[in-house]
Structure formats: structure tokens, C-alpha cells
Amino acid sequence: NAYLNSSCGSNQLYVEAWPNNNVSEGLGYGMIITAYMAGYDPNAQNLFDKLYNFYKAHPSNINPKLMAWNQDNCTSVNGVDSASDGDIDIAYGLLLAHAQWGSAGAIDYLTEAENIINAIMADDVNHETWSVKLGDWSSPGSYYYYSTRPSDFIIDHFRAFECAVSDPNWTNVINTCYNLVDIMQTNHSPVAKLIPDFIKNVNTTPVPANANFLEGPYDGDYYYNSCRVPWRLGTDYLLSGDTRAKDALDAMTNWLKSTTNNNVNNLSNGYLLNGTAIYSWNDPAYLAPWAVAAMTGSAHQTWLNDLYNSVKNTSFSSMGYYENSIKMICMIVLSGNYWSPTCTPPPPPPTAAFTATPTSGFAPLTVSFDATASSDPNGSTLTYAWDFGDGNSGNGVTVNHTYTTFGTFTATLTVTNNNGASDTETATITVQNPNPIPPTISITAPTDGSVHSLGNIALEADASDTDGNVVSVDFSVDGNTLSASNTSGNLWTTNWNADTPGTYTITATATDNEGLTSNASVVITVEAPPCTNVTNHWISNLGSTSAVVNWDAIYGAKKYKVRYRELGGSWTPITVNASQTNVLLTGLSAETTYQYQIKVKCPSGWTTWNTKTNFTTPANDVFGTFTVTSDWGTGYCAEITLTNNGTSAINGWTLDFDLIASITSLWNGTWSSNGSNNYTVNDAGWNANIPAGGSVTFGFCADYSGTLMPPYNAFLNGMSIDINSSLPIPPTIAITAPNNGDSFPENSVITLTADASDPNGTVSSVDFDVNGTIYPAVNVSGNTWEATYTAATPGNDIITAIATDNDGNTASDVISITITSSGGSSVSGHFHVTSNWGTGYCANVTITNNGSSAINGWTLIFDLNANITSLWNGTWTNNGSNNYTVNDAGWNANIPAGGSRTFGFCASYSGTITPPTNATLNGMPISFTATYNMIGNPGQTNQAVPHYLSENLTIQPNITNDETTIRYTLNEDSQVRLVLLNST
User: Fold this and answer.
1) From CA 964, how far away is CA 940, in angstroms rounded?
2) What does the pLDDT read at residue 911?
3) Which of 25, 162, 219, 236 is catalytic?
4) At what angle do helices 321-334 and 284-293 cross, to 10 degrees?
5) Could you count the other beta carbons within 10 Å of the beta carbon of residue 836?
6) Which residues are 414's β-sheet partners?
7) Are 734 and 576 in contact (CB under 8 A)?
8) What is the pLDDT of residues 895-952, one digit of tens each?
9) CA triple 347-412-415, angle to 5 deg
10) ∠ at Cα 744 (738, 747), nearest 5°?
11) Sign of CA pseudo-dihedral 757, 763, 765, 771
12) Mean pLDDT along residues 280-301
């Protein structure tokens, strides 16, 4: 009774861990000890009930069947949530109480035990991994959710729980516990076979916790939590004979005997997992559990005797509550007085089984139900209750039921035996409509003929079914199928991201429960917005030495240019490709005002600069330091220290950064890879606070190849920070002229320019590589470098700009341009209509190479005021807005100098037939001449197609008349030259 405190009321007791303070762990010890001592102490039940009353008076706020883990002066403190080990021992104590005193008295021990056992399974067990959680507070998504405490592997209790509540999931928990013990001994303590205080990552690769994970620097070692593991595994072996416990304990005991030379006085209170002793002294918290571990076999008898004598002879007054509680329970085990409460499993329930014939058909449908296959293992008489799923019910072993309405119904049989135990079985009955009616659907948005801008377009349809229900609505747009959601009533909605201008047919398809479908369609036009200057822009990740300029993308932009300066200073320009909509500004000064402007390169050229925008950098409050601790050529380990130079604390931190390496492990934080070598590191909880003037450090190991680079583009809680290091960061470069895809005549002198900068040094040189020839560039101003070369040969020139910084690191950017023949147009085209039927025509297109070298592979892009329906001698793509791309067919890819290639197509049209316009071949402009053939029908008047070029009109002989009429429709002031030729 030394630790029992009654200060919270005459009907309550708690185990005083330290003055006026209780922990649920200690209350659990007290309940187990008093229950085991019932045959020795006639007052044991009275003491147990008062401990129970204290447990009931302090429920967890998360699951009130569990106990709040800590009380001070009779009030729950420090979270008001549970600790798993306390809950587990309290539940086991209640099972012992039921075995000792029965449950017919003032407290129904068995029911209370069942309640807390089920609560433990619900909230103290991780159902993804079947591991024991640290408490009910460890919820999905939290840092500790996939962590466990091996001293909570109280496996003999779990076996008793499974028997008490008939829950087979406790076997899953037991197997997980033993699996984790094996992983720790095999992979992390292969010599000493010790178990750490905490294990993390139990859902992936379980490892010992890092220092200060939850309680202190030895969280990943064999310390004051895991000192209980030998006792907990030992009692399971003694009661169940599970050899997994014996194997683990024998391995640990053999090492202990070896490392101490069989002298228990050489044992330490705590070890690192490699076997290094933490202290040079010991006490019963360690010795008593090791004594239980030595009970696995006679080979350890001498060792067991020595441990027993050492524990027995340790004075009670020299130890505290924790040591003496462990000693007491272990002495109950060592003396042979430890036993498990037994239970009688309830009789198995009956089994429901039946047949339904038929299970589908047209209404009215009569189904015969037969439950003679149902059974009861106890031989009890069964009652049979039927729920046919349509609002009707029945009784009996066999029964017939007629379904008069159509639909899908679940028929349920419930069988019940004399003990009230029951079981159910179900079957699905499908009743079809003999005269199904398809659904109806109409598109309510967008409307037919409407015009929209690029971006998200809401698709809405009204769909209903008179004899059933609509089960799905799908929209088909541009070859893509989008599933809609039934948002309310008959309304089905989804969204389509229109990212390309053109004319689109949108089709909505409704499907009903009988598989019938109906469609509706609309045609809409999507227009591209004009290419204009940037209007929406902003600063993000503002730090003392850097900032990010962001802007909304401009449709049709080829490049963006940003320039910035200290207020009143010189501008620094940065040019980026159209795919990039932000720029990192580096090398800024703290507490300084800067300006920036943006302009856009549109197809028609550069816009003017937009309005100047000011921003001011904050004080230099936070910075990082990157230190490599080891490097083995293909990988390294390093530490990052975050220092807070500000005047207020940082409460919680998240660090985002880029790293040219693949992180494999990290400590003192949690981390995630965001792809493209970008990482996010969050605080570990215990190190979330960085006080003013203080710092925190986390470390990681990573794989790499090439040059070891420090982190860069770093942001702490969204604010850009510098990470100092003696290691270099590579430069950046972007080609600003010419543009990718530009064309130039041969022998042109082409000026090459690029913007190049280096975040932690200077750019020492820039070279342009043109098809393998190097052209050194000159730094003409700021970040701008320039070189020239003569484009002597028609074809494609691949231009690579390479920047080298003062540390020897490089970066590059690549574009491709087209060089055309200078002897007039290097290519020409001819468009020849071979047949025309008023609403459609077929034509041949001939491409001629007028240059002095062969064209190897060709792509023709053009506009055509017609809709191509088929094409031969090539492959084609409709780009929308009557723009087409035709590629060679492979076999006709080569057009020799002076040679030509022909492809053909058929198209539908209205109005006038005209040849392709706005055409380019491999990026080179190409124009088309045209001829039109029309085969006349003898005896009929034939109308030529209006056009603006020459036309060849071939007329078949008229065998029924002496003349043939040719009629032309002419525009006012048109000029016509008619030449008649006799084809014979």
C-alpha cells in the first residue's frame, strides 16, 4: 500500500508515481497486483474497486472507455488522452477481477473488461499495420501514427482479450508484435538482440526511433521503456509456449551472460542497440524482467538464481514507484503465482444458406426461396425470417414470392437458433421491365453555337428515365470521355478544360438501369484570347536576399522577360521560355526596396514593359547552413542547421528546397519528395520551436552522381532563405534570341543572345554550340551574352547555349531554327483539284524542292477553307480552326534537290474552293499555284467553280447536241481569258 493515495475521495485510490501525481500505467500495475493478491490480502477487492473507480473518473477525451494517461492533484492533465500500456493492463486487471470475484457484485468486471478491450482495439491499435499505437491520440496522418512502443507488446494479455471478446484481430496484433521483435533483433541489434524503446515506420521499413523522438536521447535504444520487454515476452512464453518468445529471449539472455561474464553485477541500466552500456549500475526495473526472461529453460538456471537473489535483496526504500512496481509483478511471475484468466467461448452461431430460383427475369417474376441448406452446429431448432427487399417479408424454410415491380432487390434470410444466435445470407434479385423505355437527355450548358474562351467550360445535362433511373451520364469532347456527377435531381455536371482553339462537338450520353442509352449534342467554338502584356503578377516567397516574381500565363506567348533593380539602380534582365511563369530573384539585400517589370514576346513581337512594381525585402532573420558529414563518392550524409536571427520564436517550421541528389533517409524531421529533386522537410514535433537567436539541426543521407551540390531555391515557411555552404550552385541560362522555330535565309549573319546568371558566384563564360561548332560569346551588359555566326547551309540548325560559372559548373539551353535556300523560295507547291461534286472535292498537293540539297523528312502546316475527310500518301492532324498538319508517310520522306512529292485528300466545303494558305514546310514559307479539272456531264449545263486562279476545264463530247454550254459566275469587274482547245 506504499503508493496508494486516497486524496481524491474515500471511494477512489490511485498509484502515486510522484507526489500527488498518477499515470495510467501505474494504475494498471496496481489493478493487476491487487487482483493477483486476492488470496493473500482479504482487502484486495476493496482496494481494486477503488482503483477502478479512479479509472472511471478520468476518461480519455477521445475514447471515454479508455483512461486519460496523467492526473495531477486529481485532475487529468497533459492532453487528457490515453496511453496504450495503461489501458491494456487495466483491461487485464478487470479480467483477473472477474476470475477472482465474479461479476455479480457492484461492478460487472467482465462487461467493463469487454468494453475497454473493444475500445483498445478501436483506438489503441493501428488497423493498417495491426501494431499497438502509442495511445488513442495517435491518429491517421499524425507524425506518430506509424510508430509503436515495444514495451506495449503485452502479448499474454492480447491472447486473453481475444478469448474474452472473440475478436480474431488480436491474432493479427500478436503476429505484428513478434514480427517487429524479429526485425529489430535481426536488422538493428544483430549481436546484442536488444529491442529499442520506440519503433517508427512500421508501415514500410520499421527502424528504431531517432534520438528525442518522443521522450529523450535514448528513444532508439534499450532504455527505461524497453526494459519491460523481457518480462512481457517472458509471461507469454510461460503461459502459451510460443517459441517466438523463447527464441527472442534466449538470444538476448545469451548475449547478456556473455557480455557480463555471467556476473549480474556487471549488468547496466540501459544499452545502445550495439551492446554499449549506458550506465555502470543497475536496478530491479532491468534485473527483474531479465529474471523472467531466464525462465525459458534450464540452461539459464544459475543466471536466473543470481538475478532472483539480486532483485530480492534490493531494498524497497531505495527504489521508486516504477522500479518497485515492475519488481512486484515480476516476483509474482518468478514465484509461480502468475496465471491467465480463462474464458469459455460462446457456442458458434448457426449458418444461413439458401437458393433463389430464378434470380432474374421480367416482371411479374415469381422466385422460389429454399433455405434447407441452413444449419446449426449445436443441433438447435432454427427459425427462418425472409425480407424480400421490396417491402414484403415471409417465414418458413421454403417460400415463394412474386415481384410485381421491376428493379434490383436484395433478398435477406435471417436464421436464429434456440440461444438467440443468428446469421444472415443475401441474394440479389433483378426484375426487368418487359417494355423498357430509353432515357431522355438534353444539354443545358453550353448552348449550341455558343462561343467560349480557353479554360474550364461547365458541361451540364438534364437526364431522366420514365421507367427506371439514369445510372450515368458521360460527355464526349474531342475524343475524350468525361464522366458527369448527378449534382441534384435530373442535373448531371462536369467540367472540360478547353486548351486549344477550334470548333467542337459535345455529345452527352445517358445510360439507364436497363442499359439503354440516349444522346444529345451541341457544337461550340473555343477562341484563343489575344496575346497581350502581363496584367496579373505578384511577389511570393519573399526573403531577405531573394524573392519570386510570378505571373499568369499569356496565351500565345513565346517568351517572357523580367527585369529588376534596386530602386534607382540599373536593371537586370532575365528571359525565360513560355512554359515558365515565375522567376527567382537572388542576390538581393535585406531591408531594401526593389522594382520589377515584365513584358511578353508575342508572335507579332515584344510588348512594352508593364508598370513598375515595388517590393521591399525583410530583415535577414533566418538562414541555413549546409554541412557534409561524410561523402563516399556515390552518396553522402549531411546536416542542415536553421538559425533564427529574429526577435521572436518560430513555432513550427517547413523547409522546401531543391537538391541535385536523391534523399534516402532523414532524421530530426519528417520528409517527402515532391518530384524533380524537390523536397519538403517538416519539424519532428519536439524541435518545432526555434527560439529567437536559436537554431535546430536535421540531417539526411542521399545518393548522387557527378558533383556534390548544396540545396538551393530554399523556402522556410514560404519565405526564401539562403542556405550557406562552401559547395557551389550551378548557373542558369536561357537563349533570348533567336526564338525556337525561327527561319532565316542561307548565308544570313545571325546574332545569338542569352541571359546567364549564377546564384552564388559569377558566370565566367558563355559558348554557343551550333551543330557542333563553338562560338564564344561576349558579355555585352549585365546578364546578357552575345555571339554571331553565318548560317551557310539550308536545313535545321541546333543551337545550344552553355554557361560556365567560376566554380566550373555548367548549365545549358537548346533551340532549333530553320535555314532556307537564298535562291528564291527553296520549296514551292501546286494544288490540283481532280474532282468536285459541289459540296466536296478531291485534290492532289505536290511539293517541289527547289533547293540544292535534299529534304529529309517533311511536315506541311496550312490553313484550308474546307474540312478534310480523308488523305493518302501521308499522315494528317486536324489542329482546329481549319488548320491542318500533314507529315510524310515514311517511304516518301526524302525530297531530292529538284524533286517533288505528292499527297492527296478529299474534303467537304461550301462556297469557293481555294488552295492552302499560310503554309509552311519544315518551318519554311511555301505558296501554292492551283489548277482545277471538272469532268462535264454530256447534255448538261456545267458550272465552273468560282476562284481567282487559272482553271483547266475538261468537257466530254456531247453526243446528244451540237453545242455545250459553259457558265461562269463572275464578280463585278472580273477579267476572264477563255482558251478552247481540241483535245484530239
Assistant:
1) 8
2) 85
3) 25
4) 20
5) 18
6) 385, 424
7) yes
8) 888 889 999 999 999 888 999 999 888 877 888 988 775 444 433 333 444 444 445 5
9) 30
10) 115
11) negative
12) 95
Ramachandran area for residue 311 (φ above 0: left; ψ -120 to 50: alpha; else beta): alpha
Q: Could you tell me the three cell numbers for 449? A: 453555337
Task: Determine the topology of domain 1-120 in CATH.
Answer: Glycosyltransferase (1.50.10)
- Asked if domains 355-432 and 537-616 share a fold, the reply is yes
With 0-12 CB in 10 A as exposed, 13-18 as middle and 19+ as buried, what is 117? buried
Q: What is the mean pLDDT of residues 543-567?
A: 91
Q: Which of 49, 85, 376, 656 is catalytic?
A: 85
Name the DSSP letter for residue 266.
Answer: G
List Cβ neighbours of 707 (8 Å cut-off, separation of 6 or more): 660, 728, 809
Residue 981: count of CB within 10 angstroms of its CB: 7
Q: What is the pLDDT of residues 471-484, one digit of tens each?
A: 999 999 988 999 99
Alpha-helical (H) ranges within 490-543 are none
759 contact partners, CB below 8 Å, separation of at least 6: 586, 587, 712, 729, 731, 732
Give me the phi and psi of 395, to 5 degrees please: -140, 160
What is the side-by-side order of every strand in the sheet holding 662-667?
662-667, 695-703, 635-644, 622-631, 723-724
- Cα–Cα distances (Å) from 840 to 304, 536, 845, 903, 921, in that order, read 102, 47, 16, 17, 25
375-377-381-386 Cα dihedral, nearest 10 degrees: -40
User: Of all residues in the chain, what percent are helix, strand and coil, respectively (each to 5)?
Assistant: 20, 40, 45
Architecture (CATH level 2) of domain 622-724: Sandwich (2.60)
Write the DSSP symbol of residue 244: H
**Residue 25 is a catalytic residue:** yes
Backbone angles phi, psi at 470, to 5 degrees: -80, 125
Query: The C-alpha cell of 876 is what?
Result: 494528317
Q: Are 438 and 516 in contact (CB under 8 A)?
A: yes
Instruction: State how far the Cα of 311 lies from the Cα of 288, in Å rounded to an integer.
Output: 6
CA distance 732 to 713: 12
Q: Give the integer Cα–Cα distance in Å for 344 and 652.
A: 52
Concatenate the DSSP letters of all residues of 843-869 into one string. Answer: EEEEEEE-SSS-EES-EEEEE-SSEEE
Q: Which three cell numbers stand for residue 778?
A: 561576349
CATH class, range 827-967: mainly beta
CATH class entry, domain 732-820: mainly beta
- Amino acid at position 783, single letter: N
Q: 292 falls in which pLDDT band (50, 70, 90)?
A: very high
Task: Let me know: does 598 contact 562? Beta carbons within 8 Å.
Answer: yes
Residue with cell 441452413: 374
The grid coordinates of residue 310 equal 539480486
Q: What is the CATH number of domain 537-616?
A: 2.60.40.10
Q: Into which CATH architecture does domain 355-432 fall?
A: Sandwich (2.60)
Cell numbers for 58, please give them. Answer: 478520468
- Neighbour tally for 289: CB within 10 Å: 29
Superfamily of domain 440-527: Immunoglobulins (2.60.40.10)
CB 473 within 8 A of CB 510: yes
Point out which residues pair with 461 in neighbouring strands: 443, 492
For residues 892 and 847, give the distance between their C-alpha atoms in angstroms, rounded to a whole number: 11
* Unique residue bearing C-alpha cell 427459425: 383
Check residue 975 and give its pLDDT: 58
CA distance 655 to 678: 11
The Cα 848–Cα 899 span in angstroms is 6
Rounded Cα distance between 668 and 666, Å, is 7
Q: How many residues does the chain have?
A: 984
d(CA 334, CA 327): 10
- List, for residues 322-331, the tens digit of each pLDDT value: 999 999 999 9
Task: Write out the three cell numbers for 262.
Answer: 555471467
Rounded CA gap, 475 and 493, in Å?
Answer: 9
- Tell me whether residue 236 is one of the annotated catalytic residues: no
Per-residue pLDDT, averaged over 500-513, amounts to 93
